[in-house]
Design a protein that fits this description.
It is a single chain. With 299 residues, this protein is mostly beta strands. Helix content is 14%, strand content 48%. Strands 1, 2, 3, 4, 5, 6, 7, 8 and 9 form a nine-stranded mixed beta sheet that branches. It has a five-stranded mixed beta sheet with strand order 10-12-17-14-15, with no helix packed on it. A four-stranded antiparallel beta sheet has the order 11-18-13-16. The termini are far apart.
């Protein structure tokens, strides 16, 4: 839970009521799963005279891009599994008496959907406590999770240091885009967290690779490359946990060249300023030719 709270302090809003609520039977399968919200819940898994209560199921409603944390402390040995609405496994912790399971939901998921929590008794019996917290992400000040593919990339501005959260273990790679208006030198700075390395890939508008960057945990690095024409450039970042990045654009002056004195004048204006000298030179050449012709006639 400590990691979850640290993440919340950096990235978003934590939804965690403090009131403890007991589980309501029957809630032994998907169809009878108890509807809950973020909070703390007390339950029990044990055996009676005629049957055993081996499973407790809960369901909770999420929105796209939210992170769900489930922390379970139990007297019996248990496993904890997270399922999505299609009842596919999205998180698991097994054969323990203390669990921390979390899942970053896709930013392209439906506006509202259901997740299921399964607590399974493996050995022993007795009470458990489950804490469920939901974090609303704020990648790059977007108010949610950054896009998870090119088509849903989150647009950002240059010169601003942004923060984000990703979980590549659960296929949550963050995609960003920036519109470049002219030929520019582009610098990507990337900071990783203290526990995981961070990987960045940069692609052009045609999805061709422009550059890549790997930053070891607790470090910072950057990469610089040039973009020769106006286009949208994509940055996708994969890591587990928080990261920071900044995109810096330095326009390249297309007038720079052998005729440029740094004033911004183009070649044509430079030639125009040289016109008097060219005329004088032509007159001198004509005079020399005329003198040579006169000398030859006298000889």
């Amino acid at each position: 839970m400590r990691k979850a709270l640290l993440f919340v302090a950096i990235m978003g809003t934590l939804l965690l009521p403090t009131t403890a609520i007991g589980d309501t039977e029957p809630n032994d399968d998907f169809d009878t799963a108890e509807q809950i919200v973020a909070g703390s819940y007390d339950g029990e898994l044990d055996c009676g005279w005629f049957s055993c209560d081996d499973y407790d199921y809960y369901r909770i409603t999420l929105v796209a891009g939210q992170v769900i944390y489930v922390n379970v402390t139990s007297t019996p040995e248990t496993s904890v599994t997270l399922y999505n609405e299609q009842r596919e496994t999205k998180g698991y912790s097994g054969a323990e008496t203390s669990h921390e399971v979390f899942r970053v939901t896709s930013s392209s998921a439906p506006a509202s959907f259901t997740y299921y929590i399964e607590i399974h008794r493996l050995d022993g019996e007795g009470p458990y406590t489950m804490e469920v917290s939901i974090v609303s992400q704020n990648d790059a000040n977007s108010g949610g999770d950054a896009g998870d593919r090119f088509d849903t990339a989150t647009f950002v501005a240059d010169g601003i240091r942004y923060s984000g959260y990703a979980n590549s273990l659960h296929y949550d790679t963050d995609y960003y885009a920036i519109r470049i208006q002219q030929e520019s030198q582009v610098t990507i700075d990337l900071w990783s967290n203290d526990e995981e390395s961070a990987h960045a890939s940069i692609d052009d508008e045609e999805r061709h690779s422009l550059s890549a960057l790997v930053v070891e945990y607790g470090a910072h690095d950057n990469v610089t490359f040039e973009v020769s024409e106006p286009q949208t450039v994509y940055l996708h970042i994969s890591t587990i946990g928080t990261y920071h990045f900044q995109i810096t654009l330095n326009p390249i002056d297309s007038t720079d060249g052998p005729f440029d004195d740094g004033s911004g004048s183009d070649v044509l204006s430079q030639l125009w300023s040289w016109l008097p000298y060219i005329i004088v030179l032509l007159i001198l050449v004509f005079v020399v030719i005329a003198i040579i012709a006169v000398v030859k006639r006298k000889v």
